[in-house]
Amino acid sequence: PIAKTTVTLDVKPWDDETDMDALTKAVRAITMDGLLWGGHQLVAVGFGIKKLQINCVVEDDKVSMDDLSDAITDLEDYVQSVDIAAMQKI
Fold first, then answer.
1. Are 5 and 56 in contact (CB under 8 A)?
2. d(C-alpha 48, C-alpha 30), whole Å
3. How far is CA 38 from CA 6, 14, 41, in A?
4. Structure confidence at residue 88 (pLDDT)
5. Do 55 and 6 touch, CB atoms closer than 8 A?
6. Which of 4, 14, 46, 69 is at a distance of 20 to 30 A from 81, taking alpha carbons?
7. CA–CA separation, 13 vs 77, rounded Å?
8. How confident is the model at residue 3 (pLDDT cuts 50, 70, 90)?
9. What CA–CA distance (Å, rounded) separates 85 from 12?
10. pLDDT (tens digit, 9 = 90+) per residue, 16-70?
11. What are 68-90's pLDDT values in tens digits?
């Protein structure tokens, strides 16, 4: 069987004026062999700011979490930071 991990990412925008729909679309547009995006939600963090919490499944041998985090952080118009909120082998 192929080793896979379910990952929940917290993607934080710059401020409350960041277009979260555009941010979500930009993150979902990231493609990698072995990466499958799942569900997402916006979570309030305070001061009118919401973060994107998004799930994905990655094939361990194909997707480096560092590379994925870098790809998301490279969306610098929208993204201030990305953190791994949870990981679970499946």
1. no
2. 27
3. 9, 23, 10
4. 98
5. yes
6. 4
7. 9
8. very high
9. 12
10. 999 999 999 999 999 999 999 999 999 999 999 999 999 999 999 999 999 999 9
11. 999 999 999 999 999 999 999 99
d(CA 4, CA 26): 23
Q: Could you tell me the two tokens for 76?
A: 């610098």
Single-letter residue type at 49: I
Residue with tokens 């997707």: 63
Q: Give phi and psi for 10, each to the nearest 5.
A: -105, 115
**Beta pairing partners, 51:** 43
The answer to whether 6 and 90 are in contact (CB under 8 A) is yes
